[in-house]
């Protein structure tokens, strides 16, 4: 839970906060956007070169880089990357010591692999895919703020630096642009950074649909590591969790009480979602990926198995989804912003999760979160 809390706290890390911004840009959302882009880049790389990526490594290294960025807090990206380049071992030592301090019960094997990653310099093809995804997500953010900041000192150098990095990773990015016919998928995913969770309820910190999705995906990934699942199941579970709210880019976030209490609305929305996904999203996905993508995004909370695509632990993904929502309600009250809606949501979530049967110990996670809130 302490690692999940670290990830959630990245909502309080504000990006470009020395620039004029049309909306709040947070590190949690950036990492979520990066993870989704990395999927598209990785799939494109495999299609272009006929190679098979180590998706377990790609996902785990994405988590490791998120930990590193969370520990290094709000250092401006150019300085952060310079420090890493010039003081790589010192940075690794610091991150590892902070993780030991903040998360003393971290799994030793996971910690050892993270240390290897931090000290290696990230020279695997999976790391290059992640770096390309990082700069694509950064470029997407920069395109939002550039026009408002044309008079800011250094803005043109920032633009040149970002474009230089995109050019450096051009052989990976151009594959995606060619195979996916542009970057519409990147923009589509980015729109989930505009959609706030709990839109009618004041909370601190505000979280977005995309940020919530990454919390769910990372929680599921950690559970799968503990469960020792095979590589294909780990891939399916992670990306099913990451994309489980993708239809909301087309329908917006319809709150559960409305879905439940308006007769027939839930089934009608599900039908509309399928119709719109097929007409709006699937054309962005290369044809030979579509069946796999459908397998990932349809029925995300249902346990499934396929001889072609493997297993999905949808029931456990639902457990992670509920825990993510519980964290949003409980931590807002911890930060001092509360309401009747949040109190009731917390109580009802605890009751529901206490009775929910899953290999993920939701009661222990809730108790651990309570320990954090009592410190």
Total helices: the number is 19
Molecular shape: globular
Tell me the distance between the termini.
Answer: 14 Å
Number of strands: 2
- CATH level 1 name of the domain at 1-194: Mainly Alpha
User: Could you list the spans in which at least 5 consecutive residues all have pLDDT below 50?
Assistant: 258-263
Q: Which sequence of SSEs, written as H and E, runs from N to C?
A: HHHHHHHHHHHHHHHHEEHHH
Largest sheet: 2 strands, antiparallel
Residue share in helix:
55-70%
CATH superfamily of the domain at 1-194: Hypothetical protein af1432
What is the name of the CATH architecture of the domain at 1-194? Orthogonal Bundle
CATH topology group of the domain at 1-194 = Hypothetical protein af1432
Average pLDDT, rounded to a whole number, is 89
Rg over CA atoms, rounded to whole Å, is 20 Å
Q: How much beta, percentage-wise?
A: under 5%
Explain what this protein looks like in three dimensions.
With 375 residues, the protein is mostly helical. The protein has a domain at 1-194: Orthogonal Bundle (Hypothetical protein af1432). It contains 19 helices and two strands. A two-stranded antiparallel ribbon has the order 1-2. A hairpin with a 3-residue loop joins strand 1 (304-306) and strand 2. The chain is globular and about 55 Å long. The two termini are 14 Å apart. 38% of the residues are buried.
